[in-house]
């Protein structure tokens, strides 16, 4: 199959024409779907993974990491809201890099996105299996094989994504709202507002066990509170009003997650010693068990299941859109750019990424999978400051219409770059080998793209935005 044809959306050659000619993604989503996509991907971070930051530096270190990560992601949300509401196309940050910086950066950013979401999807599937394994152990059924639950979760959600984006994100909206409500109810049920509280902060809280170095190390998993909120950008081509829906959904999502993260820390640190909390597989479910209320335990069991399913569901949506966009621009074989003639989804990209998620979910430890996702996301966030600074320089505010203008530029970009540097060092402290291995991997695939794949990219056909010539060019 030739890869040197026009890369217009929804166009391919040969046998693909009967599937995708004239087809494109549907603009049918609203602000609530964007909120559900962003929060749905990330809320699982409150149900699992964030607590590894407690093991790195203690409970107070995890709280400090939570707030600093909140600042980092507020900068990400502001930058993304401006650029994506202006570059409203599938691929999110990949498409931004393609228009603003260049092909090599765009290719790498696309890979960062795909691996960040696919590894997060795998981590969610592992958590689903761990939840069922824990419930089975509680009911006297030890030795339950968790692998079928991993496969079932990934395959079911891939099928749901295959069938259409509206049903997928409406499903996410419902189960995300239930999972967030479960955290609020657990908070209300364990505070002194409605009787005697089981929280024991005075007895359980300690000083920083590893000093300020532990606070720095906690930044590694502190990102897990919010990782994936930038995935709202992947729906830019399927939103009815990008200039309104994308900024509203993304910024409202960051505020929702800040509340959920702080409440989660407060509940869990008051019910579990930091030594145990730092290694728990399902900390909110464990907190509900320790609360002494069977109702709360059942509710948080359901909340954990719904949060992991919502996150994996959103990850499949986002990873497939990035992969689809790269195929449409011939950064990858155009075979991946096929759009289903009935469901109008990038079905080949969805199916292709399923076995990759299964390999990691079935064969890698949870903390390693989480670290892979965090590092890919962190590399993407490091690109954003450069991206928005060049965007403002090439196309000043009065030169093109923007759906949203983020305030205080360039302070958010500089703040984001500094926090990314701190977090890279934090990851290096605990996972230096994996950090070096991942950066080496991205260097190798960059060389492959430059020397082998770049010949198929039609540079002139990529610039789809009706913008004036950049200043200085």
Secondary structure elements and their pairing?
Blueprint: H1 17-20, H2 31-42, H3 44-47, H4 52-57, H5 59-86, H6 93-100, H7 103-138, H8 147-163, H9 165-190, H10 201-204, H11 211-222, H12 242-269, H13 274-277, H14 283-290, H15 294-328, H16 347-363, H17 366-394, H18 411-453, H19 459-462
Helix pairs in contact: 2-9, 2-12, 2-15, 5-11, 5-12, 5-17, 5-18, 6-7, 6-17, 7-8, 7-15, 7-16, 7-17, 7-18, 8-15, 8-16, 9-12, 9-15, 11-18, 14-15, 15-16, 17-18
What overall form do the CA principal axes indicate? globular
Distance between the termini: 36 Å
The total domain count is: 1
Strand portion, in percent? under 5%
How would you state the average pLDDT, rounded? 88
Annotation field: number of helices: 19
Classify the fold: give the CATH topology: Amino acid/polyamine transporter I
Radius of gyration of CA atoms, rounded to a whole number: 22 Å
| CATH top-level class | Mainly Alpha
Helix content: 55-70%
Main sheet overview: none
Low-confidence runs of at least 5 consecutive residues:
1-22
| Annotated CATH architecture | Up-down Bundle
Secondary-structure class: mainly alpha
Fourth-level CATH superfamily: Amino acid/polyamine transporter I
* SSE order, one letter for each helix or strand: HHHHHHHHHHHHHHHHHHH
Task: Please tally the β strands and state the result.
Answer: 0
Pfam families: AA_permease_2 (PF13520)
GO molecular function: transmembrane transporter activity
Protein name: Amino acid/polyamine/organocation transporter, APC superfamily
Subcellular location: Cell membrane
